[in-house]
Design goal:
It is a single chain. The protein is α/β, with parallel strands linked by helices. It has two domains: 111 residues, no CATH class; 119 residues, CBS-domain (Roll). 47% of the residues lie in helices and 12% in strands. It has a three-stranded mixed β-sheet with strand order 1-2-3. A three-stranded mixed β-sheet has the order 4-5-6. α1 runs antiparallel to α2, α1 runs antiparallel to α5 and α2 runs antiparallel to α3.
């Protein structure tokens, strides 16, 4: 005789899971100076990873996000360390702790969303609830012509204080030039920045992501594509750019 799980039992199960995740979030507070920790941060991290894996699944993007937060640097996203959140006024340890807190808050939100959707038989797959990419992107698009030289591109980056430029061919965006690629190509290959065109060092095609997707999707795509910058689209049109800095500002609680 099979036993069917009733909606009430399902809700109780989610209630317990949410309570456990909230408790874990509360136990992070002492590491942020709100009390005295009762164990090491390493022990806390191991338990948190086990809890997220148990309640949300070992393949959950939020488990990956927590692992990135432990590193507290852009290296945790794409194995690159040359871009970090600007002007946060916080040391890297505190940034990392705040990133952990943000991920745990997202875990609670995801569990609450699953609890609300549990009775709905028509639901297909899982919907990660959280801030959308468009809410944290840089809406002002900075670009440079593919025929401009690298020196001109570098001057634009310095003027606009940005780590990347979308590259245009006068009709559309055809690539991306980053500060790290510019420096790497010029130094490693001995290029003349005054005569070498941008198109020689740009990355093409432009990697894009829809602005209505959750921010954790940007984290995943950056890692998969080994890039620190994504063009954000709406209805097929580029409307902004999201970078590692934007994401780390969010996970650090910096708006």
């Amino acid at each position: 005789m099979s036993v069917r799980t009733t909606p009430q039992k399902t809700r109780v199960s989610f209630d317990r899971s949410i309570e456990r995740m909230r408790k874990q979030l509360a136990e992070l507070a002492p590491f942020l100076g709100k009390g005295k920790p009762t164990r090491s941060l390493e022990e806390f991290d191991l338990e948190t990873e086990r809890l997220i894996g148990e309640l949300l699944g070992q393949t959950s993007d939020l488990l990956h996000a927590y692992e990135y937060a432990e590193l507290g640097e852009a290296a945790g996203l794409v194995n690159m360390t040359d871009e970090a959140p600007e002007g946060t006024g916080m040391d890297s340890q505190r940034q990392s702790l705040l990133q952990r807190s943000r991920v745990l808050e997202s875990c609670v939100s995801e569990l609450e969303a699953r609890r609300s959707a549990a009775p709905k038989k028509a639901k297909i797959g899982q919907t990660l609830i959280g801030p959308q990419i468009a809410e944290h992107m840089t809406a002002e698009i900075r670009s440079v012509s593919q025929d401009a030289n690298l020196r001109e591109a570098g001057q634009l980056m310095h003027r606009w204080k940005t780590g990347s430029l979308l590259v245009t061919n006068s009709q559309s965006y055809v690539g991306v030039l980053t500060d790290s690629a510019l420096a790497r190509e010029v130094v490693a290959n001995g290029l003349n920045p005054g005569t070498t065109p941008v198109k020689a060092c740009m990355r093409a095609p432009v990697i894009t992501i829809e602005g209505n997707r959750p921010i954790i999707d940007a984290v995943r795509m950056m890692k998969d594509q080994a890039t620190r910058h994504l063009a954000v689209t709406q209805d097929g049109q580029i409307t902004g750019v999201i970078s590692v800095s934007n994401i780390l500002r969010y996970y650090s609680g910096v708006v």
